Amino acid sequence: xxxxxxxxxxxxxxxxxxxxxxxxxxxxxxxxxxxxxxxxxxxxxxxxxxxxxxxxxxxxxxxxxxxxxxxxxxxxxxxxxxxxxxxxxxxxxxxxxxxxxxxxxxxxxxxxxxxxxxxxxxxxxxxxxxxxxxxxxxxxxxxxxxxxxxxxxxxxxxxxxxxxxxxxxxxxxxxxxxxxxxxxxxxxxxxxxxxxxxxxxxxxxxxxxxxxxxxxxxxxxxxxxxxxxxxxxxxxxxxxxxxxxxxxxxxxxxxxxxxxxxxxxxxxxxx
Length: 271
Description:
By secondary structure, the protein is mainly α. The chain is built from 10 helices and 2 strands; from the N terminus they run αααααββααααα. Strands 1-2 form a two-stranded antiparallel ribbon. It is globular.
């Protein structure tokens, strides 16, 4: 019983931090699960993580929707694009050894950290573009803040397919990839990127979890998933509230620091 209480507390931390930075928390949860259960195969680890990410993203999306920060039109486009990638990613997990999984996970986390550290300090201006295939969005938050930005939806959908595959394959949910993509490559304001990313994560993580259930790889771990899910449902609400007080640049710095720590730790495990 005590073990499940600790897992619930872990879920709360994962939910709070993951929702604050729009990453879903999987990038924190997976390495912790790898450390707690060193003999579990990657399928079990990723299936538990994806299920927990779904509940985290669902709770966070609800909180962000009340703040009117979610770009539902763009989110639906990206979510649909992630589905084929998420299915392939979940199926691919069965073909990789635990040691190789740890190595790939560690390298990608470090690479993502370097990317964020390089770009988190840059001031990004929102520029209007007259290029073809541009979609302009205007979002007005609950506090009256207006966000206007434009992006190429075809490019965004293509990137989402890749995000869906990588995130489902690693069981991390994809927010650590999708938030930088939305903010730096698709011109989304940071706070809209984190909120919209959560909406996309909910659909993508549900897809990956469904694949694991249908293929029978999610054979055990229900109790662990339940304890973690209870924690993230509560933590996600806290993280969304805290996002009001955190500047966009600090969101990226916090994410980069966490990724670097996690990446180095997991990479050392694989060596």
